[in-house]
Amino acid sequence: MTLRLVLAGAILLLALLPVLNRMPAESALHVSDFVVSVSGKWITYAVLALAIDLAWGYAGILSLGHGAFFALGGYAIGMHLMRLIGPRGVYGHPVLPDFMVFLGYQKLPWYWLGFDHFPFAILMAMAVPGLLALVVGYLAFRSRITGVYLSIITQALTYALMLAFFRNDMGFGGNNGFTDFKELLGMPLNTPNARSVLFYASLVLLVLSLWLCSVITRSKLGRVLVAIRDAESRVRFLGYDVTQHKLFVFVLSAVLAGLAGALYVPQVGIINPGEFSPGNSIEAVIWVAVGGRGTLVGALLGAFSVNALKTWLTTVAPDLWLFALGGLFVAVTLFLPRGLIGLFTKAPK
Amino acid sequence: MNAAASPAPAPQPLLYLDGVSVVFDGFKALNSLSLIVDPGELRAIIGPNGAGKTTMMDVITGKTRPTEGVVRFRDHDLTRLDEATIANLGIGRKFQKPTMFDALTVFENLELALKAPRGPVACLRWVLGGGDRARIAQTLEEVGLTARAHDRAGVLSHGQQQWLEIGMLLMQDPELLLVDEPVAGMTDQETEHTAALLVRIAGQRSVVVVEHDLEFVRALGSKVTVLCEGALLSEGSIDHVQNDPRVIEVYLGR
Ligand SMILES: Nc1ncnc2c1ncn2[C@@H]1O[C@H](COP(=O)(O)OP(=O)(O)OP(=O)(O)O)[C@@H](O)[C@H]1O
Ligand SMILES: [Mg+2]
């Protein structure tokens, strides 16, 4: 109960940030642009953490490739943002984005069609990760691939996608990816106004995701998922088609990750194949482990606290970050098996 | 009218195993085993350790595929179906080693076992009705776990976990119950209670019980099948099998 109050308070505080940002700079309550844009980014990370927690913490599906779903969502909105640049590119081509002109494309590849419409791009930000998760999940779960094997497959998936997106002939801008975005929904990006709108959109996504995940985890489906996590084969003997249940959460989780990525990209102003790097997926899993998997609030706590640490450490001692991350993970695994959230809540009896 | 004059046809068996063999790395865990269980029948299965009793249940429930042989439940070929489909046909199983969902409460374990639509969307939309609640309460009473309903299953004693497994089996309301060593770790009184419970269930349901405890098997008062080295050794009443010299040699006389 108190946990819920704290959570509601934290969300309200977050919601205040863009308002405080508009206060006069000399006011004690003023919040810098940096804080707003960094928190907006973290909110999308928190949604990614929730998605991972739903699959891993509840259903026991440890995906080390969720960064791929996040990146695919980001690429989908990135394609839209590229289309919106229109003739304002460096080469001034009426239709083709700069990188296509540079690479000698004559016309827009077919898979770029439709991305000039925002709703289509958002749909794709959900559908592409969702479909990929459906196919990969179906093949893996049907063959009863679990545990570390599943983790390796998903890790290989994001690595393969990274290599693919690095290629210029894929039509996604190669290693430079997409950047120099101009506007979204008629709003010039990089203005306080756009920052606030994207911030609130992310916050709304977070709250909706949290609501959805909590409805699921508190339903009988949530208990079936926990049962699958703890004794998968026993669940089958009760007549549950485990493949269906796992697919359901895995696809949903991928869709949430895709949406998070779609809100991340306009806020950071760039998407490139580096977002697919295996390390990103592992880092996101560590957020959840640090915060406390199997509790939704734990995932949020992990995403915010690890990223806060990262932001601070990468300014004071950038070389130490990976060591700190590894050390943090080991320390939490050894001393806080229930994660940071375990410090504030009682262990279930 | 004419039908009444001719002899009543033998009831179609509910479960039919014929020539079932299971080979693990050259070792025959089941060796051309045949078994017929009729609707409403209560059947006890005994046999020394490693006789293949649990393996037989694994074959029926789809956990293990037979190397050869026929396994039918009503008109269904069980060798081609997966565990969940078989369970949904109406075959419930209590495992020899109790396995439940430790992180969930006793009540929640029973709720998951309760016969209801099993798909993810159905589970998401599931609302526990008054009738379901009453059934769970009744089962809790039956297995003596009412006071522990809201404790996590992981903290139960071994005997209580046995009871919870039996409760989960009851919640599924299966047509065929496969019960592997139900009374291990139970007191004499609990053993009696279990025997009475299984006898009561049989009649409307078919029950196959594997047990080493011969007192318990006697209390069931059912036909007994003796397995040895994966094959059928003897079949008949408890007195019959106890006096069968082959049985005495391999099992009882040890
Ligand atoms: N998956 C497996 N792989 C290899 N051997 C197995 C496997 N399962 C069972 N066995 C072997 O098959 C034989 C029969 O085992 P099973 O568990 O069916 O015996 P049981 O009659 O249930 O014995 P118990 O009374 O000890 O429970 C044993 O020798 C066992 O070691
Ligand atoms: Mg056994």
Measured between the Cα atoms of the first and last residue of chain B, the distance is: 56 Å
Mean pLDDT of chain A: 92
The sequence of SSEs of chain A as H and E is HHHHHHEEEHHHEHHH
By CATH, the topology of the largest domain in chain B is: Rossmann fold
How many beta-strand segments of chain A? 4
Would you count the extended β strands of chain B for me? 10
Please report the number of helical segments of chain A: 12
Write up this protein.
The complex is a heterodimer of chains A (about 350) and B (about 250). Chain A is mostly helical and about 350 residues long. Chain A has 12 helices and 4 strands, in the order ααααααβββαααβααα. Chain B is of the alpha/beta class. Chain B has 11 helices and 10 strands. In chain B, strands 6-7-8-3-9-10 form a 6-stranded mixed β-sheet, with helices on both faces. A 4-stranded antiparallel β-sheet of chain B has the order 2-1-4-5, covered by helices on one side. In chain B, α8 links the parallel β7 and β8. The termini of chain B are far apart. Classes of the chains: A mainly alpha (about 350), B alpha/beta (about 250). Chains A and B meet through α8 and α9 of A and α3, α4 and α5 of B. Bound molecules: adenosine-5'-triphosphate and magnesium ion. The site of magnesium ion has 4 residues of chain B, from α2.
Summarize the model shown:
Helix content of chain A is 68%, strand content 2%.
Characteristics:
heterodimer; A: 349 residues; mainly alpha; two-stranded antiparallel ribbon; 12 helices; 2% strand; B: 254 residues; alpha/beta; 2 domains; 6-stranded mixed β-sheet; 10 strands; binds adenosine-5'-triphosphate; binds magnesium ion
Topology:
The complex is a heterodimer of chains A (349) and B (254).
Chain A: H1 2-21, H2 33-58, H3 66-85, H4 98-102, H5 118-142, H6 147-166, E1 178-179, E2 183-184, E3 187-188, H7 192-218, H8 220-237, H9 242-268, E4 270-271, H10 278-291, H11 296-316, H12 321-335
Antiparallel strand pairs in A: 1-4, 2-3
Helix pairs in contact in A: 1-2, 1-7, 2-7, 2-9, 2-10, 2-11, 3-5, 3-6, 3-9, 5-9, 7-8, 7-9, 10-11, 10-12
Chain B: H1 2-5, E1 15-24, E2 27-37, E3 42-46, H2 53-60, E4 68-73, E5 76-77, H3 83-90, E6 91-94, H4 106-113, H5 120-125, H6 130-142, H7 158-172, E7 176-180, H8 188-201, E8 206-210, H9 214-220, E9 223-228, E10 231-236, H10 238-243, H11 245-252
Parallel strand pairs in B: 3-8, 3-9, 6-7, 7-8
Antiparallel strand pairs in B: 1-2, 1-4, 4-5, 9-10
The complex binds adenosine-5'-triphosphate (ATP) and magnesium ion (MG).
The site of adenosine-5'-triphosphate has 11 residues of chain B, from α2.
